[in-house]
Amino acid sequence: MKPLSSFAYSPQPVTGGYTDRILEVDLTNKTIAVTEAPAGFKEMYIGGRGYALKLIWDRTTKETRYDSPENVLVMAGGPLGNEPWFPGSGKFIVGTISPLTGTFIDSNIGGHFAPLLKLCGFDALAVTGISDQDLVLVIDGETGAIQLAAAPDFGDEDLGALSYGESLLKEFSGGEPTENVAAVTNGPGARQARFGIVNSLFYDSRRKRIRAKQAGRGGTGTVMRRKGLRAIVVRSNLARLKGNNPVDPAGVKKAGTALKKVISQCDPKQLNLSSWGTTVLTEYMNKFHILPVDNYQYGQHPDAAQVFPDVFLKKFFSQNLPDGCYIGCNLACAKGADEVVLTRGPQAGKKVAVDGPEYETVGAVTCMGIFDPQFVMEYNWYCDEYGLDTISMGVTASFLMECIQRGFLISEDIGFDLSFGNIEAADRLLHDTGRGRGPGRICGQGVHRAKTWVAERHASRNGASVAETLAELDKFGMEVKGLEFSMYITKESLAQQGGYGFALKGPQHDEAWLIFIDQVHKELPTFEKKADALKWFPLIRTWFNAVGLCKLPWIDVRNPEAAQTSEPAKNFPTLALYVDYFNATVGADKSLQDLLDDSERLALLQKLINVRQGKGTRASDLIPFRAMGPAFFNEYQSRAEYYDAWLQEQLGPDRKPPDDPEDRHRMIVELRRQAYQNLCDVVYRAKGFTSEAIPLTETVARFGLLDDQAVTLLNLPDLQDHKEVVSLVN
């Protein structure tokens, strides 16, 4: 690779989890700079999601779009990332303005990239500008050199994200990569679709191959590719153990040892993620009518057993190897298969390694009405190679399938029979989307934009109103704020409905995964408990995304001591270990409530960005009716006995439901809508928002966020006029 620009530097040592340095790259001018984090920056914004939020809040405006040169692409870990003594410490986030939502998005991702970036001397990487050619950024902590180079094509300019990254790492490492080198890449699909992903590639010394994790949600890879950044490579040979140079190494080791003990003793008796990976959720979801089938119409299917975890374990997860995303994680839930022969698509006959599937990918395939484990594996690999989000791809395809089912589209609109359960059609649409051709050009825009295309075609063919058609499509177009739903049926979980609707970046489980504790474990039985969970859980989950940790050892492995607490679902005994780990690393003396307060500041900043970008009001939190209940009569009919019993319970013993089933269905629809609106009112008050979901001035001021931009945004004439409020809350 021939450098186009170079920058020599001395890597800043890590102290107490931080380097206090940010690497800044401007791709338009091909300049590289290192800046120091301002005083108090890490105390206010922590790391990870917090750093991305602050950089994007300060450097973008309401006019900024995903493809604007000033849009910032941020990659940041956190102070607790990079510690083999502690499980799940390899996480980082990729944050930017989303091509799907038009507002802030961040996606959580694992691998070795962020720990190595920190050892190279940087808490975060901030990329702006747009290059006139494809580039590779190389950050070499061993030579003290940072370079922007023309991206090699390795003989194929359309080489996929996995193949390209493997070739790049081998070239950079002189033939055989090691665990001291990692890369992030995107694929050709990111040039075509709005839901392109970032792949995090690292060498697995146990499997003797390169593996991949993904930042899948919201189009982060699309932004990276639009900027002309094909890949980033990092290298450092510094030791990982004690790599954070913690203030109290013994405290770090003690907390990590305790959590590893909980995991090793409890995970095999609970979800057994170390054996099954997250595919274990498929069986639970199907049992409780939560597994998405036919675009979330149904939550259960008789063929679902074909994609249960034992199938993948027996057919594909043939090597019983510890599969952590990062060194030292004994939960080891990142399963993979080393030899899968592709039977479809342009690379049919090729033997590939597949990292996954995760539950979300399995659910994306069942959402299309398909229950074929071989197709799941191939869908997983091709999405990763094209650089496409398996969730958005599957949900948008499912939406188009239902449009065919309900007559909003005809086969001629697509060019082939795109119906539920048709593997050949689903496979064809996947490749069309990855290559940006035919109906794939529509699918690649996501559900929100596909709805408009469908409505216009339907209206022109039938003389219908576009607005009325859109209103019908809104019932089953599974997106909020422009982001597709992740893979959980929420019809019977008001808590998860709120978790999706109030999620600041759109309906995904990263901010509030409440479906398990609400619908499976029944630990949120009252309206009040659901409302409380919708404030508390997003805050603690935000903290994980700020400090560089995986959430699964906390939320998916229940500490036995939690049963003795007043709120077992919050798993306080395990959270106490995380508090100890944080304090021992950075040299603080914070309580859990202190950490929640720090997270609330970040959540408020993200809310302010949403308000600025036009996605922050009550209207933006409304979810499609399919997420609340049976949107159409056929859904009601599929579980009529259940819905009739639910309706009678709501009406009480003194009222009789209507005799006509269609009238009962309409009554259920109205009751479910009202319940969601009531939930909005209560949760907004708890968060310190107006009834229209706008943060109150006092709320923003209390967390030190009432800067000039916030004042203007909240329609305050001048900060000086509100000294009284600021003084009061401080």
Give an overview in words:
With 730 residues, the protein is of the alpha+beta class. 42% of the residues lie in helices and 13% in strands. Strands 1-9-8-13-10-11-12 form a seven-stranded mixed beta sheet. β2 and β3 (31-36) form a beta hairpin. It is globular and about 75 Å long. The termini are far apart.
Q: What is the name of the CATH superfamily of the domain at 3-235? A: Aldehyde ferredoxin oxidoreductase, N-terminal domain
Q: Would you report the number of β strands?
A: 17
> If you consult CATH, what is the topology of the domain at 3-235?
Aldehyde Ferredoxin Oxidoreductase,  A, domain 1
- In DSSP terms, counting alpha (H) and pi (I) runs of 4 or more, how many helices? 30
**Taking Cα atoms only, what radius of gyration do you get, to the nearest Å?**
25 Å
The coarse overall form would be: globular
CATH class of the domain at 3-235: Alpha Beta
Strand order of the largest sheet: 1-9-8-13-10-11-12
Contiguous uncertain segments of 5+ residues: 719-730
Structure, briefly:
The chain is α+β, with helices and mostly antiparallel strands. Helices cover 42% and strands 13% of the residues. Helix 26 (640-651) packs across helix 27 (661-687).
